[in-house]
Amino acid sequence: MLSRRIIPCLDVREGKVVKGVRFRDHVVMGEIVDLALRYRDEGADELVFYDITASPEGRGVDRGWVERVASVIDIPFCVAGGIRSVEEARAVLYAGADKISVNSPALERPGLIDELAEAFGVQCVVVGIDSLRDADGEWRVRQYTGDPSRTQALARRTLDWIIEAQHRGAGEIVLNCMGSDGVRRGYDLEQLGVARAVCQVPLIASGGAGAPEHFHAAFAEADVDGALAASVFHSGAIAIPELKRYLRGQGDVVRP
Amino acid sequence: MAVVLVDSGGTNIGSVRYALQRLGVDAALTSDAAAIRAADKVILPGVGAAGPGMARLRELELVEVIRALTQPVLGVCLGMQLLCAHSEEADTACLGLVPATVRRFTEAPGLRVPHMGWNRLQGRREHPLLAGLGEDDWAYFVHSYAVPVGDYTLATCDFGGPFSAVVAAGNFHGMQFHPERSASTGAKLLKNFLAL
User: Fold this and answer.
1) What is the number of structural domains in chain A?
2) Which of A36, A67, A113, A245 has its CA 20 to 30 A from that of A78?
C-alpha cells in the first residue's frame, strides 16, 4: 500500500535554508546540503526546496545547489521557485531534481503547466498554491508570497485553480494554507478536505504543522497523500523517526 | 567494470549516475552502439512517455543493439516498460524482451494516478538481484502505467492490486521504481545488479 509521505520543506534564500513566520521575517536555519542529508538520514520521504526569492525577483533557480543536493541525496526532491519556462525546468531536472513545482509563474501564464506536462510528463509537474481565506469566506490564491511587499491577492478561487491545474497537467498539488502557516496550530483541515474532494492527483498539505497529531489529522481527516512542514523539523521540535512511529501506532501507512 | 547509461533522453539520467557514483562506479552516459555492446553492464534509464522513449531509441539506431545484448541489462522506470513487448501508452510497440503488455492504472476511490510515493516490495522470488531484501523494504515509485504480474515478475507491489515492481527475462531486468531515489533499499538493489 502506498505510504503517506512526510516532507520537510526547505525554503532557500541566497544558498541558505531559511524560515519565516507567516512568510515574513526570515531567519537562517542552516546549509542546504547539511539539512538535506540530516532529513534523509532521519527518514524523510521526500524533500522540497523553495527558492523563495527567485519568483519575486524574476530570476531562475541557482542550479549549483540542485546538483550538490542530487549527488548526495537518495530520496526524491522537488525544486520550486522562479521556474517560468520549459527550458528552466529542464535545467533543474537535468541537474538532478525529480520534480519541479510552479506557483506564481503558472498564475501569470497557466499554459506553462500544459507545456511542462507535455515536455516531462505529469509526474514531474507539481503546482504549488498559496491560499488564504478572504473576508467573504472564500479561499483565494495569493501570488509572489516569497516577498511580503509584493504579495498579491488574486480574484482566482483556490478550488477553481486546483481543478484547472489538474486539467492542464499538474501531477501533484501542494496546497499551502497561509492562514495556518508558521503558527503550528495544525493544518487547515477544512480547506484541505474541500480541496481533496476536487483533487484527483496527489495532494500535499502545507502550513500549520506543530505536533504529531496534526500530521495524523491531515492523513485521517483530510486524506492527503503527504504532509509538508518546515520549522517544526528545522528546530527539532518534531523528530521524524518519532513522528513516524507515532503515525504507525495511529494506523497510518508510513515508510519506516 | 564498464557500466554504461544509455542516453535515452530521460531527465533522471543524472540521478542514476550519481547513485552509481555513490556505489563507487563511474558510469559513462552514451548513445554509441559500440560502447553499449562492449559494456559489462547496461542501464536503460527513462522518465517520460513510451512513444517518445521508443522514438528516441529508433532515432539513435539502438533498438536492434539493445535487443542483441547478452550482458546484464537493467531498465529503470520507463526503461523497464520499454523492455516489454507493448505499451498501452499511445499504443506503442516496445523492445519485446519481456513478454508483457504495459497497462495504465485505473483511477478508483482512494487510488490517485500517478502512483507517486513510497510503496512496499512484496512477493519476492529468489533471485540474486533481490539478495538481502527484507519484508519491510520500500521503494519510491512515480508512474501511471504498470507491468502486470507474470512469469517474469521477481517482486510485486500493491496499488489497487498487484503489479510488477521488479522483472527479469534472461539477461534483461527491470525496476519500475526509482532505485536511485529509494534510499538504502535502492542502493542495495543497484549494488546487486552491478554484482550480477
Assistant:
1) 1
2) A245
